[in-house]
């Protein structure tokens, strides 16, 4: 059956025009259906359906990706959690135990990762070290070997890149520290209420291209909202160009993913003997049940799938960069590094084989001048969001918020980088396009989070099937 017919029938079933029919009494919806019945079929603005993503992610990608993210290269992330909030002064640090982040002792992190000048490989490392040493000694450029000069030029160019969608964290600052992501997992922290709402509010209200007159449905910081606000909001959203609508959906998808995680790793028991973390079905329902959220929950889950597709597409597009023979996941442990690169490429080829990739060519198309202006707006808004992460009052939430916005920013940079487009259509690897270790670690960990959310949705679906 054609996709359009499948979609039409799915739609008619969803709105109740095709039922089992003729005035028959419908059985009451189960708890699982109330969260998931609208989260099926085709996703707006894409040619992909939820079921295809579930199957692909949960059985083919998720287990291998988890293994990769446990490796040294991906588990240590350097971050500055002490950067001041650039927008307001009164950040109340929530002070909850579960918000604390434990940084690494310097001897825990492999030397290959710590090396300040790390780039991709031992050779690149040595070149940059040679250069930095020369700089420290006040050497002029001519004293550097030709090869070193070339490398320096390339890295400087890269560091000055205007393709970035994120404000780079100042990882050279003495305040920046390595964090072991496996020891500081994203989970329920208890960060909530007006402080958390303020962050989400600023993100949506000031950065999602939304005029103040349009109210977001169920916004806890706006009083007396009704159905008419909801209708106005969605007709505003539908009236936007595809890029601006995508921007809102990416943020909403990220928000949904964070809230899926805190529901899946909720603090279930807290005694002086032990803490127990696990699935909190009530928490999940309060956030995503179709009835309890007046239809908002399922929409948010669809946005999460949209975000998944965007990051998946970015990874498929950047494969040639990782295939470069001189690219290594360098930690200094040769055997381990080679094994990890093999696993990385296996995962990337799996991703490339996904049959229904998002088509980013529909973005920033049309009139060149307008498209460039729109792209610039998109980039600046996203950079702003990455800066807002320094205002999050719970350090654990800040850590994962920063990592995930940097990861999504890297995905957008890949999707829309002119260099990538110019250099890598079919012709193989680009030597103009680069990613730093920070970008690589955040890209894969951010995707790992969304992939875990999709897997957790299956777990919640199974748990909800057992209750009515
Ligand atoms: P919130 O999630 O705070 O949402 C506020 C309002 O936004 C809702 O009332 C609703 O109107 C709307 N909304 C909710 N979800 C969506 C969506 N997907 N799309 C569009 N609109 C939506 N808490 C943790 O326990 N662990 C964490 O790791 C964590 N990380 C965080 C990271 C950041 C950057 C931020 C800002 C918060 C984080 N939080 C975390 C807090 C968590 O996201 C919630 O803010 C908190 O649990 C309170 O939830 P809430 O139900 O009041 O609504």
Automatic annotation (TrEMBL):
InterPro entries: Ero1, ERO1-like_sf. One of its GO terms (cellular component) is endoplasmic reticulum membrane. Coiled coil: none annotated. Disulfide bonds join 94-99, 394-397. It is found in: Endoplasmic reticulum membrane; Golgi apparatus lumen. One of its GO terms (biological process) is release of sequestered calcium ion into cytosol. Residues 1-23 form the signal peptide. Keywords: Disulfide bond, Electron transport, Endoplasmic reticulum, FAD, Flavoprotein, Glycoprotein, Membrane, Oxidoreductase, Redox-active center, Signal, Transport. It is a peripheral membrane protein. It comes from the Eukaryota. Its cofactor is FAD. FAD binds at residues 187, 189, 200, 252, 255, 287. Belongs to the EROs family. Predominantly monomer. May function both as a monomer and a homodimer. Interacts with PDILT. Interacts with ERP44; the interaction results in retention of ERO1A in the endoplasmic reticulum. This is ERO1-like protein alpha. It comes from Moschus moschiferus (Siberian musk deer). The gene is ERO1A.
């Amino acid at each position: 059956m054609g996709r359009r017919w499948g979609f039409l029938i799915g739609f008619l079933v969803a709105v109740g025009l095709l039922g089992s029919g003729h005035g028959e009494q419908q059985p009451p919806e189960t708890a699982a259906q109330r969260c998931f019945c609208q989260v099926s079929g085709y996703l707006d603005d894409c040619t992909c359906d939820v079921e295809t993503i579930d199957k692909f992610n949960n059985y083919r990608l998720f287990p291998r990706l988890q293994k990769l993210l446990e490796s040294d290269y991906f588990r240590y992330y350097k971050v500055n959690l002490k950067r001041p909030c650039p927008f307001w002064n009164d950040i109340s640090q929530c002070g909850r135990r579960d918000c604390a982040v434990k940084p690494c002792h310097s001897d825990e992190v492999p030397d290959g990762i710590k090396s300040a000048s790390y780039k991709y490989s031992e050779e690149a490392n040595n070149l940059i070290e040679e250069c930095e040493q020369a700089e420290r000694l006040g050497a002029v450029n001519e004293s550097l070997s030709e090869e070193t000069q070339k490398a320096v030029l390339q890295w400087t160019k890269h560091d000055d890149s205007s393709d970035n969608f994120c404000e780079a964290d100042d990882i050279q600052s003495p305040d920046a520290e390595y964090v072991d992501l496996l020891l500081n997992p994203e989970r329920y922290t208890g960060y909530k209420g007006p402080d958390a709402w303020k962050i989400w509010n600023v993100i949506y209200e000031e950065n999602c291209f939304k005029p103040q007159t349009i109210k977001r449905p169920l916004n806890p910081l706006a009083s007396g909202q009704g159905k008419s606000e909801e209708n106005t909001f969605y007709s505003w959203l539908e009236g936007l160009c595809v890029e601006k609508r995508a921007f809102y959906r990416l943020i909403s998808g990220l928000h949904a993913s964070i809230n899926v995680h805190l529901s899946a790793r909720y603090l279930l028991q807290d005694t002086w003997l032990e803490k127990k973390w696990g699935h909190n079905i009530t928490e999940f329902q309060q956030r995503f049940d179709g009835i309890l959220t007046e239809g908002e929950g399922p929409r948010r889950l669809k946005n999460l799938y949209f975000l998944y597709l965007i990051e998946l597409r970015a990874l498929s597009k950047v494969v040639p960069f990782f295939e470069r023979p001189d690219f290594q996941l360098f930690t200094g442990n040769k055997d381990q590094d080679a094994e990890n690169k093999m696993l990385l490429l296996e995962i990337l080829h799996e991703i490339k084989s996904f049959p229904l990739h998002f088509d980013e060519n529909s973005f920033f198309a049309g009139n060149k001048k307008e498209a460039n202006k729109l792209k610039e707006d998109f980039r600046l808004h996203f950079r702003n969001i990455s800066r807002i992460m320094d205002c999050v009052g719970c350090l654990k939430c800040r850590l994962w918020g920063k990592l995930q916005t940097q990861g999504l920013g890297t995905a957008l940079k890949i999707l829309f980088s002119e260099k990538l487009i110019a250099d890598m259509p079919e012709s193989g690897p680009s030597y103009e396009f680069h990613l730093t270790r920070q970008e690589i670690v955040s890209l894969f960990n951010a995707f790992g989070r969304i992939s875990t959310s999709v897997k957790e949705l299956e777990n919640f679906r199974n748990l909800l099937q057992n209750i009515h």
